[in-house]
Each structure stands twice: as structure tokens, then as C-alpha cells.
Design goal:
- The complex is a heterodimer of chains A (404) and B (899).
- Chain A is an alpha/beta fold and 404 residues long.
- Chain A contains ten helices and 25 strands.
- In chain B, strand 17 and strand 18 form a beta hairpin.
- A seven-stranded mixed sheet of chain B has the order 5-4-16-15-14-6-7, sandwiched between helices. In chain B, strands 21-25-22-24-23-26 form a six-stranded mixed beta barrel. A six-stranded antiparallel sheet of chain B has the order 28-29-27-32-31-30, sandwiched between helices.
- Chain B is an alpha/beta fold and 899 residues long.
- Chain B has 32 helices and 34 strands.
- The chains are: A alpha/beta (404), B alpha/beta (899).
- The interface between A and B is medium-sized, with 19 and 18 residues.
- Strand 23 of chain A pairs antiparallel with strand 30 of chain B, so a sheet runs across the interface.
Chain lengths: 404, 899
């Protein structure tokens, strides 16, 4: 008799977990996936491509319906889980019968941060999280609506790019003195800004949004320095918050995210969490790669094998056509580290490799990201780079040929 | 080419480099450049040119040219001035100094690169009208020992043989001559003789140069012992019945005393071996070859001449030829190879301080004869100061006004730093020049006259075999540049000598020069070209190369002295016994080595012309010092590192080349680099100013020296479209590269300082690759996608080369892939680096050659067939052979398998 395994959330982490389970423990669990979004799981990372018109909405579906069927997964999408009853091992679902579980995996993801701004309740203020948001934004672009995107991180940049590409006049306002400050150093961010500006996006830095103007609809944005920007719509893209309410109300330990151990187990027996909702060793990852690594570990564990998640080396890729940006590891450098830098700003290239103790500790690349996978591998496997140091900037073939 | 444009027709002229005097065909393209090829009809080269001659077309640019008269103004800057004002000023100042301090207070310092007509007018003005014989020339540094030796033995400065003798000899002895590099076309004639007729070649040189590569016998003598070798040879000839007793008896004097003295110097093979440091077998082999071969030509050059006993060495050689009667006969003669295109022309007009004019001397009858011919008001009556003494007199303040024409003494004189300092004391320092700046100009010239350069000027030059050839103009005069003879004549007119200097053309001067040579000659003087004294302007323009003498009404003779008839009073040659060989200086603990100096294959003198050719710059792009491996080990030097070479006179920092071609105890450094093109390679500044008592030629090849390693943390290069001023702390050498200038650098300063420096010269918008922790910095600025300036620095032990960067610098606008390749320092696929150029004529690189060797080429001829390398001037053939040998020794199995 298969063990009832329920996954709450139908995002990328859930899909990967099912996939991994099918590889290592096919048939061991009776799997049900319960998702709030009314469609098959899709690649959220590619939403900005849909927005930019570079991919069609249906093309970003992760797996077709028969894939789920073939794995015997009960798929309930468009369903919201209201409550976890840890004691009775039961989930309450809005408007549906409860579902019992033996094992439960929370893959509830995260939600855009709704800044506590005056005017944020106005009509025309949106976020950028799911495919409904994309549909909405596309209609803004078609109407040539003036859009202000608040937030110069990955999400904000992708939203701004997609909107601009789709035809909307876009202003990106960012609180900090540089774009993607958590992933880029100053020269990389400056280059990124110039590249983004070449895409027709107006970028304002050191721009603290104090309120959104308008009576019932958005009419503009006001900054704390008094500047006003006329706008028909505002996209809030100033970060995300892990979706922890369900867990918290069930008495499962949460911090910023749902606290998990190295097996992705929460404080409650048989209940696990992964992906953007989980907090492992104090870190909530907002990227897909850690979720995939977590899915692999959790699947092993659920299959009864020994597995342990040690955290992820984070790599960020900005998916803006013609503006390749990559950041991984400890890119800021410390007293003990040194940097190798290739900077050709006129050609839109900036690359920094941070070396610490003879190993690649981090990398920031703008423009030319051909070798990111190799750098990421070097960062992750902590290989000694002495033999390739003098050529590694110029790519794996050159460096390995020279070292041979 | 515009058909029918008369200014674009092919012009036959003569090469401006060495004394071989090759014929050159120049076809201007109408835009200031010209296609260059060898003149098949010229009897010096029959169509061949060496690497330097082949690259003449690359040296015609006007970027660095002096195009207007300049004068130093009160702010010490040079400013443009009108010709008339410049000439008035110079004449006025010369007149003032002569009136105040007498004619001995002024001097001219001339050049073996002036045309005969320029030389003639300058010599005439100084010796006949100003009244001083302070006219000397850079030829003093080059072949004045040969002049003195000729005059002692023959009674005149006569070269007895002709180039045909090199084709017809059965034994060719090269003494102190790296002809393979310095006279490549003659060397190729010698090699052709060896191949065609089986002639033997003996090379006598302390250094195993490329000339020695093809020798049947190499004699690596100790420096300064040449005269012992030839004294020993004279004894051997006498003791083995190899003398021409009849010739000795009828045409010479002094044989017995000389032989007696020779026995004292080197009375046997064993004694000769002891005196020269050679093995007895080698000495005996040489003596036997010489004794047994009637057709022998002994060629000698700077290794003989540049010595404090240079004249004795010349006479030691001449003695052997006189004693065997092997002089002035087909395939048998002593032969002085001159270093400059018109050293011989300078000698013909008497442009040396110890000659008067036209092979006449400071004897009362000669002085009177020349005075009458010139109608000279104040003829000099005694010898003037020779080059080294002239500059010492300038340093002492005795000479107050100096006019330098077409040479760079602040680089080329011995003790050159002292000479440069001396120039600053002059009241009047005038230079007639082609280039805007060189070390001599920078030494504080007061007036610069823009002279015509090769390709623009017109007149005659004489080569090593006494052949007078026309240098013809094929380019228009640029800017306000004028012929040297015109400049001198204009000053002469302003000094009040208008009637004697009213020349309409070079042809008019040539006619006067020819007339003087024949004036009251009657066969008493060797130099006589009286047959040309009435040549018309048209005939002068059309004149084909001609050997002197050309006596009026007589059949031309090719050779001298085959039947005696020397130019001494008794018409007999003199045997001159050399003094015991010794160098003028001693080595000691502080200066344990001797510094030899000389030329390299692809550069000429101070590089003001060859330095503008990228092809010529790529063979040996930076100044170096060659050291024997044992000395290198003793002094802690490694190949490719840097060393400081110090003498009592100066210091240089040079790249170390460790080579067994160098003798133990000897260093060799090339003479070409100056302050204008390297930071610390003024090798002339190292050389002792000690001179031969007869010729005044300095001993430039044996200065006591010490050497010590000098470490640099970083090495690299800068490529630039325009000249740059490099940071003071850097060691650098500049070379012409395709599209601009390359600076090879070594330094110990922080890389970030270089980054700031680059920003100061190239602007803020740089593309950069930096690995400061790894000691690597590469940066470039671009204009329209092409590299404008680029800087590469890396740890000295692992600095790589500049070939990829140079190719991309030359490529114009770069693709993104090329730009990436630039910063990687590695070639793009399909853009493989060809390596440093070995064959300068066809631009074939070392990598290309090594690839061809790896692919099976086993001889220089095969490499030539595949790559054309070595098939033009042939001067890289020794290097090709070395590369083949090197490949064979590196990988014998593969070579064996491939062959």
C-alpha cells in the first residue's frame, strides 16, 4: 500500500520533487499535488520571456498533463489549502473535501512584497509573480500605458524589460545606488544600467518611492525627494516574502520562512518544506536552482536513502535578451580575496572572478556569460584554480588547453 | 599608377646603407611611397637586395622628418624660422667665432651617408675658405684604420681589388667581419662562389657570427691578436717557400725588417697559436690553406679597423698579400669592406681631418696645388682634429662652433655620454638633418637645417670597390628640405665666398670634383676621374656605375698594383711591421670582461631610418648583450633576463642572450639603440675613447666591462599609434610595428601606477583585464574599433610575447572575438601567431618556420621552396639552419622518422 504524500504548491519545486521521486521511489507514495494557480505547473522563470513576447504562455508549461498521469499523481490545481491539521494529518481545502496525508511537503513559494505605501491599494498597482500578472501587464503594454516599476532587482528588471519590449514606456525606480545590488558590484551594475537604458527603459537610482499618486486609479509615483513620475500603472517588484501562513497557523516553526533541517524536515514529524517558502540555515532562497537541489535531497530522503542538503551556492541569471548577467558566490571580495577583472564597457562586457585561497569564490559577469557553467562548477567543487588562473577569464577551452 | 606620369617612372638609384653600394630600382606610387627592388643591371648586386635594402620602401614616411629650418628660441623650445634667416644667422655666428677665436675654433662633423657632392662642398668651405682642417666624419669610427693602413703600405688610400675577385677567389678570408649581417649581398656572392667553384672560406673573429656558419674554418681569436695571426702567416709563407720573391724585390721595400719583426711576434705555428688563443691545428690549417691558394682575398672590416692598433692590423694583412704578390690580380687581393654608402666618396674628396682633398695630403706641394685650384683665400695648412679629439676639444671649450651633417655623434661616438655633454658647451651648434629628433638634436642644437633624404637627393656615392654610382631622386623634396650642398653653399655665400660656391647643381660640383682629381695628376695620384670632368648635366643624370680611376684619355683599369706602381715616392709598396699586439686597456677584478660592439642584421646605425620599418624591427626588437654560458653562470645571468653592463664610461641595462657563439670573457652589444628609442641602451656611452695613433679610430670592441643581473618583476609592452613618453622608472625599447610603434618594457613599479599612466596618455575609456594579484595587467584604448594604445604587463618569468597583440593592432577595427583574443593574449583559431620574424624580406616568422621543419623541411633550401624564407637576401639562412639543427636535437626521433 502506497504512502499518501501530499505536496502543497504546484510550482517548479513541486514538479522537480515529483520527477525526482519517480526516479528513486516510483510507486512508493500515492502523490497528490494541490496548487492554487488554475493551470498546469509552468516555468515561472520564463514569465518574463512571455511578457517580452519571446515565448508563448503555453510553451512554458513544465510538463504535459499525461506526464502527471503517467506517474499516478493526483493533480488538484486551482485549489487553496486553508489549514493543516498536523494531529489528524489532514489538509482542509476551500470548497473541497479534506485530504489526508502521511507525509506532507510544503512548496508554497513566495509572494511579492506589497510595500506599505500610501496609494498601493489604488487600481493599477500590480505585482509580477504569476501568469495572470503577465496577462495583465501585456494588456498595459498593448495600451501603451506608462508604467513605473518599483524595484531594481532581478524581478523588477525582468518586468521592466518585458513591458518595454511589449511596447510600454517604462521607468524603473530603485531605492539603492545601483541595480541588483545583492548580486552585482558597482561596475557591473553601472554597465547593466547602461545596457538596460539602451533597451529604452528609464532608470532612476537612489529613488525612494514615498507614495503612489491618484484618486482611484494610479496617476503617478512620488519619490521622497519630491520628484513625481506620471504613470498609468505601477508594478511593485521590490522583493518577495515566503508563503508561511499555512505552516505558521499549523504551529510549524517558522522564521522568515518555514524552518527546515538538512533533510528539509520542518519541526513537525513527516512534514517537509522546500523551495522559496523554506528557510534552511537561516537562508530563504529566491531562486530555482536551490529548490531543485532541495527536491533531489528530499526525494532521496523520502525514498529512505541517506541524503543531506548543505545549502546552495547561489547563481543568478538575468534573463533579459541581449543583457546577460550572471552572479554567483562571494562576489564582493574580502581582505583575503583577490579579483581578476575583464572590463570592456564599450562592448558591454564586465567580468569579475573572485579568488580566495586559490579557489574561485565568486563571479560577476555582465555581457559575456559563455563560461558561467564552468565558473559555477569551479565555485561549487572548490577546485584549486592555480593551473588555469591566467587563462580562466577567457573560457574553459582556452584555459584547459593552456594548462594541458 | 598613372600611365605616362613622368614622375612615377622607375628610377635607378643606390642603396643608402652599407658600403656594398647596391643598385636599387624605385618606382614611386605618387603618394610618397615607392616600390623597391634590386637593380639587375647594377654590378654590385645584380638585382639582389638584403633585408634592409628590401625594406627601404617602408622608410619613406614623413612623420618624423624635419621639414623646415628650426632655431632654438629664448624659452629653449625649437621654433620654425625662414631659410634666409637661418642661413644668415649661422653665417653670422660662424664668422663671429672665426674672427674672434680663429678658424681652429670651428668644426664640421660629416657623415659617410652624405653624397660626394655634399662632402666636397663642405670640405672645400672649411679647408679652403674658413681655413681649418677641423672637418671629420663618422667614417673615422668606421674605416679610418684602413685608410691609414693603405696609405702606409701603398702611399695612397687605394682599394686594390674589385668585387669580381670575390667571385673568382679560391680562398676568402674574412677578418673581423660579420659580412653575413653587415654586407649581406657580398656575402651571398662569396657563398655563391663556394657553391659554384668550391671556394674555401675562413672566418677570423672573436665571435662566432652567422658569417662563420658557412666557413670551412673558423678561427675564434682572442680580441686584438689579429696582427699576431698575420705576422705568423707571413713567417709561415717565408719558411715554406710561398713568397713571390720577384714581386717583393721589384715592387716593395722593407720586407726583411718586417719579416724579422714578425718572427719576434709569432715565429711559428705554435707561437701564433699561443699569441692568438687558437689551437695549433687551426693555425696550421689556415696557414696551409693560405700558402697553397694563389687566389686569395682577405676581407676585413670593423673587427680590424675599430682598434687602437687597427692600422697595424691592416698592415699585417697587407704584408701577407704583398709578400705573395696577391694583390690587384684576378681573385687575389686584400679588401677593405666599408661600412657606409659613401665612406669612399668622403675619402675621395678628402673629407677627413688628416686629408686635404682628392687624395691629396697636407704636404706643401699638395696644399699649394689645391689652393691654386680652389683659388682659396685661407687654405688649411695642417691636419685638423679627428672625431674623438674633436669632441674632446669641444668639451674643453676650444671648439666653439660645430656643424654636424647627417650623423648622430651623441649616440655613435665612444664615451658618448661625454660627447653629448660636450655638445652643450657649444656657442653655436648647427645640424643638417632628416629627422626632427635624435640624441644629437636633443643634445641642444641651436639651428636645424632640413636636409633632403635618400630618395629626394641627387648625386654620387662610391662603394667599397671604388665604384661610383648615382643616387637619384624619385620623390619630390618635402617641405622646405634642401640638398646638403645647397645649404653649405648658401652659408659660404653669406660668408663672402659666393664666387667659389655658386653651384647650379650636383652635376656642377661633380665636374669640379673630377677636375680637381685630375688637376696636375699625371698618374701621380690614384684617385683620378678626370675623364668625367666635362660630363654634361644630361650625361651626369644618365651616368651608369663606373669604377675609378677614370683618367682622361686612358683606358680604364679595374685593379691596382698587380704590377706594382704604388703611390710612394719610389713607386714601391712598404712592408710595415706591426707593434706587438695588445689592447689598450686591461681587465681587472672590477671589470673582468671585455665589451665588443657591432651591428645587427636588420638595423643600421642609430636606426633613424631602419627604425621606421616594422619588418626590420621584428628580427631583434630590443637591445641585448650576448654572454657566454660560463660567464652567465659566473655572473648569475640567465637567458632572457636583464643585466646591467658597466664600464668606466657608462652603464646600460640590456636583455641577456646566453650564447656559445660568444667567447668566454667577452660581451657583445649592438650599437643601434639610443635615448630616442631605448631607455638604457646607449652602448656608445660604454665604449672607451682610446684611439689608434695613426688613424684616430677608437677601440670600440674591447672595453673592460662588468655585468650584473638586474631583476625586473614585470615585463610587457605598449603598442601605440603615436610616440609616447614612458614613465621614468621603466626600462623600454621602441620598435616600429605595423601601424605604429611598439615599446618593450620591463619594470618594478606597481601595476596600478601603469594603469594610471595609461589613463593619462590614452584617456579614461579603457578596456582592461587585470589580475593584480597574479601580476597581470592588460589594457587598451580604441578608436573606431581599432586599437589606439594598448599596454600588457605580466610577471617577468611568464610574460609571453607580443605577436597576437601586434597582429590585432595591425588589423584595424576588431570583431568582438578579436577583442577577446587581444585580452587573452592568445591567437584566435585560424589567426595563429607566426612568431618573431626571421626572414625579414618575406616576413616569415619563427613559428611558421618551425612548423615547416616539423612538417619535414630539412634544409634551408626546402624552407625556401615552401615559405620563400631566405630566398631573397639570404641573410637569414644561417638562422634557418640553426632552427633545423635545434629541432633535430630537440626531437631526434621524430626528425629521423620524418626524414
Amino acid at each position: 500500500m502506497s504512502e499518501a504524500l501530499v505536496i502543497v504548491g504546484n510550482g517548479m519545486a513541486a514538479v522537480r520533487l515529483v520527477d525526482e521521486l519517480a526516479k528513486v521511489a516510483l510507486g512508493r507514495h500515492a502523490i497528490a499535488v494541490i496548487g492554487a494557480e488554475p493551470r498546469l505547473a509552468y516555468n515561472r522563470v520564463l514569465l518574463s520571456s512571455v511578457l517580452a513576447g519571446e515565448a508563448a504562455s503555453h510553451e512554458i508549461e513544465l510538463k504535459p498533463a499525461n506526464w502527471w498521469r503517467d506517474r499516478g499523481v493526483t493533480l488538484k490545481y486551482g485549489c487553496t489549502v486553508d489549514e493543516i491539521d498536523v494531529g489528524r494529518r489532514e489538509l482542509k481545502i476551500a470548497g473541497e473535501e479534506s485530504v489526508t496525508f502521511s507525509k506532507l511537503v510544503l512548496a508554497t513559494g513566495s509572494s511579492p512584497l506589497r510595500l506599505n505605501l500610501p496609494g498601493s491599494e489604488l487600481s493599477g498597482v500590480h505585482t509580477f509573480r504569476d501568469s495572470r500578472d503577465v496577462d495583465l501587464m501585456l494588456s498595459l503594454a498593448v495600451g501603451k500605458k506608462r508604467v513605473v516599476v518599483v524595484g531594481g532587482g532581478l524581478l523588477g528588471l525582468e518586468a521592466a524589460y518585458g513591458l518595454a519590449k511589449a511596447g510600454a514606456p517604462v521607468t524603473l525606480v530603485h531605492l539603492m545606488d545601483r541595480l541588483m545590488e545583492r548580486q552585482l558590484d558597482a561596475p557591473a551594475a553601472a554597465l547593466l544600467k547602461s545596457l538596460v537604458e539602451k533597451k529604452g527603459i528609464n532608470v532612476l537610482l537612489n529613488a525612494n518611492t514615498s507614495r503612489i499618486l491618484g484618486q482611484s486609479r494610479v496617476e503617478g509615483v512620488e519619490l521622497s525627494d519630491g520628484r513625481q513620475i506620471d504613470a498609468d500603472a505601477v508594478i511593485l517588484a521590490a522583493g518577495v516574502r515566503p508563503n508561511i501562513t499555512l505552516a505558521k497557523e499549523a504551529g510549524i516553526a517558522v522564521n522568515r520562512g518555514i524552518v527546515v533541517d538538512d533533510r528539509l524536515g520542518t519541526g513537525a514529524d513527516g512534514i517537509f518544506a522546500l523551495g522559496e517558502c523554506a528557510e534552511h540555515r537561516g537562508i530563504c532562497y529566491g531562486l530555482v536552482e536551490p529548490a531543485y537541489e532541495q527536491a533531489r535531497v528530499l526525494a532521496q530522503h523520502l525514498a529512505g536513502r541517506k541524503a543531506s542538503y548543505q545549502g546552495s551556492v547561489v547563481a543568478t541569471n538575468l534573463k533579459v535578451s541581449g543583457v546577460s548577467v550572471f552572479s554567483a558566490g562571494e562576489f564582493t571580495g574580502t581582505d583575503r580575496s583577490e579579483a581578476i577583472v575583464l572590463s570592456d564597457i564599450r562592448r558591454g562586457t564586465y567580468k569579475k572572478l573572485v579568488i580566495e585561497d586559490g579557489r574561485l569564490a565568486g563571479a560577476v559577469l555582465v555581457g559575456d556569460t559563455t563560461d558561467v557553467l564552468w565558473y559555477l562548477e569551479l565555485i561549487r567543487n572548490r577546485a584549486n584554480i592555480a593551473g588555469v588562473r591566467k587563462d580562466m577569464m577567457f573560457g574553459r577551452p582556452a584555459a584547459l588547453a593552456a594548462a594541458a | 599608377m598613372t600611365a605616362g606620369d613622368p614622375s612615377l617612372r622607375t628610377t635607378s638609384t643606390a642603396c643608402p646603407y652599407c658600403g656594398v653600394g647596391c643598385g636599387v630600382l624605385a618606382t614611386p606610387d605618387g603618394n610618397g611611397a615607392a616600390a623597391i627592388s634590386g637593380d639587375p643591371s647594377h654590378p654590385s648586386n645584380f638585382g639582389r637586395l638584403c633585408s634592409k635594402g628590401s625594406a627601404l620602401g617602408e622608410t619613406l614616411g614623413l612623420e618624423h622628418r624635419l621639414l623646415h629650418p628650426m632655431i632654438r628660441c629664448s624659452s629653449w623650445a625649437m621654433q620654425r624660422i625662414a631659410w634666409t634667416d637661418a642661413l644668415d644667422h649661422v653665417a653670422h655666428r660662424f664668422a663671429h667665432v672665426v674672427a674672434r677665436d680663429g678658424p681652429g675654433a670651428v668644426a664640421f662633423y660629416l657623415s659617410g651617408q652624405l653624397l660626394t657632392e655634399d662632402y666636397y662642398v663642405a670640405n672645400k668651405l672649411m679647408k679652403g675658405f674658413i681655413g681649418s682642417a677641423n672637418v671629420d666624419t663618422n667614417s673615422r669610427l668606421c674605416m679610418s684604420s684602413s685608410v691609414a693602413g693603405h696609405r702606409r703600405a701603398f702611399g695612397a688610400d687605394t682599394v686594390p681589388g674589385v668585387y669580381e675577385d670575390l667571385d673568382e677567389a679560391d680562398l676568402l678570408v674574412l677578418v673581423g667581419s660579420n659580412a653575413a649581417w653587415c654586407h649581406p649581398i657580398l656575402f651571398q656572392r662569396i657563398i655563391a662562389n663556394k657553391q659554384r667553384r668550391g671556394a674555401q672560406i675562413v672566418v677570423v673573429d672573436p665571435r662566432k657570427t652567422d658569417t662563420a656558419e658557412d666557413a670551412n674554418l673558423f678561427l675564434g681569436v682572442r680580441p686584438g691578436t689579429d696582427s699576431a695571426l698575420f705576422a705568423g702567416l707571413l713567417v709561415h709563407l717565408a719558411d715554406n717557400d710561398a713568397l713571390d720573391c720577384d714581386y717583393i724585390a721589384r715592387h716593395t721595400s722593407g720586407f726583411d725588417q718586417t719579416l724579422c719583426r714578425a718572427r719576434g711576434l709569432a715565429g711559428s705555428v705554435a707561437a701564433t697559436a699561443l699569441a692568438t688563443g687558437l689551437s695549433e691545428q687551426h693555425v696550421a690549417a689556415f696557414f696551409q690553406m693560405f700558402a697553397a691558394t694563389p687566389r686569395v682575398v682577405t676581407l676585413y672590416s670593423q673587427g680590424v679597423n675599430q682598434s687602437a692598433q687597427g692600422t697595424d692590423k691592416v698592415n699585417a694583412i697587407l704584408n701577407c698579400h704583398l709578400a705573395t704578390g696577391r694583390i690587384g690580380k684576378v681573385g687575389a687581393s686584400p679588401f677593405s669592406l666599408t661600412g657606409q654608402p659613401n665612406a669612399m666618396g668622403g675619402r675621395e674628396v678628402g673629407g677627413l681631418a688628416n686629408q686635404l682633398a682628392a687624395h691629396m695630403n697636407f704636404t706643401p706641394p699638395d696644399i699649394d696645388r689645391v689652393r691654386r685650384f680652389w683659388e682659396a683665400p685661407r687654405i688649411a695648412t695642417h691636419e685638423g682634429l679627428k672625431a674623438v679629439q674633436m669632441f674632446e676639444a669641444i668639451g674643453r671649450g676650444e671648439i666653439k662652433a660645430l656643424w654636424v651633417m647627417g650623423t648622430n655623434p651623441a649616440v655613435s661616438l665612444p664615451d658618448a655620454d661625454a660627447a653629448r655633454t660636450a655638445l652643450k658647451k657649444l656657442e653655436l651648434f648647427v645640424i643638417s638633418e632628416n629627422v626632427l629628433s635624435n640624441d644629437t638634436v636633443a643634445a641642444g642644437a641651436h639651428v636645424l637645417f632640413p636636409a633632403l633624404a635618400w630618395g629626394e637627393k641627387s648625386g654620387t656615392v662610391t662603394n667599397s670597390e671604388r665604384r661610383i654610382s648615382r643616387q637619384r631622386a624619385f620623390l619630390p623634396a618635402p617641405g622646405e628640405a634642401r640638398p646638403d650642398w645647397w645649404i653649405v653653399s648658401e652659408v659660404a655665400k653669406r660668408l663672402g665666398f659666393g664666387a667659389a660656391f655658386d653651384y647650379a647643381s650636383a652635376a656642377a660640383i661633380f665636374r669640379e670634383h673630377a677636375a680637381l682629381s685630375a688637376f696636375e695628376n699625371g698618374g701621380s695620384r690614384d684617385f683620378d676621374i678626370g675623364a668625367l670632368s666635362d660630363v654634361s648635366d644630361d650625361a651626369f643624370n644618365a651616368m651608369t656605375p663606373v669604377l675609378w680611376p677614370q683618367r682622361a684619355g686612358e683606358t680604364a683599369q679595374a685593379r691596382f698594383f698587380g704590377g706594382g706602381e704604388f703611390f710612394t715616392n719610389d713607386r714601391k709598396a712598404r712592408f710595415v711591421a706591426p707593434e706587438p699586439p695588445m689592447l689598450r686597456t686591461e681587465t681587472h677584478e672590477g671589470r673582468p670582461l671585455r665589451l665588443n660592439t657591432g651591428r645587427i642584421r636588420d638595423q643600421w646605425h642609430t636606426m633613424t631610418r631602419t627604425g621606421t620599418s616594422e619588418r626590420l624591427g621584428s628580427h631583434l626588437p630590443e637591445p641585448f648583450v650576448e654572454v657566454h654560458p660560463d660567464d652567465a653562470a659566473r655572473h648569475g645571468l640567465t637567458d632572457g633576463s636583464f643585466a646591467r653592463v658597466t664600464t668606466d664610461h657608462g652603464q646600460c641595462t640590456l636583455k641577456v642572450v646566453v650564447s656559445t657563439r660568444q667567447q668566454r670573457g667577452m660581451l657583445f652589444a649592438p650599437i643601434h639603440w639610443s635615448k630616442a628609442n631605448a631607455s638604457a641602451a646607449r652602448v656608445g656611452a660604454l665604449v672607451a675613447p682610446l684611439t689608434d695613433p695613426f688613424s684616430g679610430q677608437p677601440e670600440a670592441k674591447a672595453t673592460p666591462a662588468s655585468i650584473a643581473p638586474y631583476e625586473y618583476v614585470f615585463r610587457g609592452f605598449v603598442l601605440s599609434r603615436k610616440p609616447l613618453k614612458l614613465p621614468e622608472h621603466a626600462l623600454w625599447a621602441r620598435a616600429a610595428i605595423n601601424g605604429g610603434l611598439g615599446y618593450l618594457i620591463a619594470d618594478n613599479a606597481d601595476l596600478k601606477e601603469w594603469s594610471s599612466w595609461l589613463r593619462s596618455v590614452a584617456g579614461e575609456e579603457l578596456a582592461e583585464y587585470s589580475d593584480f594579484g597574479g601580476g597581470v595587467y592588460r589594457a587598451a584604448s580604441f578608436a573606431d574599433g581599432a586599437i589606439e594604445t594598448c599596454l600588457f604587463l605580466a610577471p617577468a618569468r611568464d610574460a609571453g610575447d607580443w605577436e597576437v597583440a601586434k597582429e590585432l593592432f595591425a588589423a584595424g577595427a576588431l570583431t568582438d572575438a578579436q577583442r577577446r583574443s587581444l585580452f587573452s593574449g592568445k591567437p584566435l583559431q585560424g589567426l595563429a601567431s607566426t612568431g618573431p620574424v626571421v626572414c625579414a624580406c618575406f616576413g616569415v616568422g619563427r613559428t611558421t618556420i618551425c612548423d615547416a621543419i616539423a612538417a619535414g623541411a630539412r634544409s634551408a633550401a626546402e624552407l625556401g621552396a615552401r615559405l620563400k624564407a631566405g630566398t631573397n637576401c639570404g641573410s637569414c639562412i644561417p638562422e634557418l639552419k640553426r632552427l633545423i639543427v635545434k629541432a633535430a636535437s630537440a626531437d631526434p626521433d621524430q626528425m629521423a622518422a620524418a626524414s
